[in-house]
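Recap quiz, item 2
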Amino acid sequence: MGRKVVWRDAISSDRRNGAWRYLSLCSLSSPDFVCRYVKILLVDDDPIARSIHSMLLHLQGHEVIEAADGELAWRLVEEGEISFVVSDWMMPNLAGVDLCRRIRSAEFDRYVYVILCTSKGAKSDLIEGMDAGADDFLVKPISPEELRVKVRAGGRVLSLQQGLADRNRELATINSQLQAAHKLVEDDLKAAAWMQQRLLPQPALHARGLRCEWRLEPSGYIAGDIFNLFPLGESETGFYLLDVCGHGVPAAMMSVTLSMVLTPDATHGSPLKRYNSATGHFDIRSPEDAVHELNRRFQFKDDRYFTMIYGVFDAYSSTLRFAQAGHPSPILMKRGEKPAVLGEGGMPVGLWPKIEFDCFEVDVNPGDRLLLYSDGVTESLNGDGETYGEGRLLAYLTQHPLHSMDDMLEGLMEEIGSWRAGSDFTDDLSLLAIEVTEDGIV
Amino acid sequence: MQFEESTVNGIVVVKVLEARIVADIAPQFKARLIEYVNKGNRKIILDLSAVAFIDSSGLGALIGSLKAMGNDGELALCGATDAVVNMFKLTRMNKVFRLFANQEEAAAALA
């Protein structure tokens, strides 16, 4: 049932009774008399007209708030809760059309539906009213039927608008929940990235005759590429760079697992050493033996795998020995010679119990360098979809032979960065440069 | 993920119409190939002549499909471009997969 609220303007019982009689003739017989409930602000300076219209609206099931002029009406709209205004045009203080303009220029968080009532219904009035933002018009004297259908139409518009506003609010809530969830995931990834960084060698790490510099650029926060360099025995230093197939979290988790396993600490069953029962000591496995052992331990039974270069530098014999399991060939830069590609490949680790791969040994001298890298380097795409390739990598190294290792890697990263500019290619990118130092040869 | 399906001498031939088999389409690629296996195809020829590039994830998808075929199935590849052949050589997958120049040669070998 509708409620009638009288605001600042009492309506006498005589007038009310008159209106009841008027209404009983024109409106009560309507089949859809009870229409959707709307709270309406009725604005009219003529108390008689206002009281009739108010009664009509009340009988049609609406809640009515009355105002005797535009300024009073404006204050009520401003206070909130009013979304439907039926206003007379000609009024003291603030005319209906100006009230309408003021409502439109205000930035309310709700839509206010405005019907203007004119006494003449002239075309120029309609145009001015529409310009002012009126939604509909009623021509005085107002027929109860017209009032009923126009208020009902306005009610429909408001209810659609309300539905939309509710949906928007719901979406905003979901959106903020998503943002919170995203931040949680992002924070986790940042923490994982920090932990992964801590597994990498210190910059300019120097270990038993080898010095290394590196760069790692994950495609996301964390990488499937990982590498390290560590003392292995009295005269041996081990190093590796590996790339777990795919990228993102699954690849990164595997790369971290592998980095924990690939340590010289034999007490944890390192695959890099083997217990010699005759001597009671742990012998250092050759690179090929170590990679076979890794392959034995990491049989994934699906299509996961990783590629790697594992090498051992022996300071006594001044040799570097590597195994190349499915990984791009390393580049050897001997002092005074052109950079050369070593090895032709081999099967990746983890796919089959028996794998074959290249193994090779080179003699080295102080100042000689070796560059290990992941396929993200050579497979980097430019804007035309062309890969960077081994040829360009070799050309760069040939053209910049005298740079320090750090400068060499910095220059390479810049070159690859500008190669990639304009393409959306994403893969982990890693570079590990190793140099034999003066104290490296015993 | 676009495939073109045909038959040569009664053997199903799947031509890959993607220029790049890389990480973002690899899972779908593998799922589609395994569908062929699950439909009971024991012999499949995969035509890679339109594929200009395959990365490690793409290779993983191929290996996954090969493993899904099991011992009684046969998967033959044909028409691999230079970049794809180089990838197979680097990873020695040319010793695991059977590579042929074209569909006819592959079909003759599987017959």
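Chain B touches chain A at residues 19, 23, 26, 30, 53, 55-57, 59-61, 63-64, 67, 83, 89-93, 95-96 (CB under 8 Å).
Strands of chain B lie at 3-8, 11-16, 20-21, 43-47, 53-54, 74-78, 98-100.
End of item.
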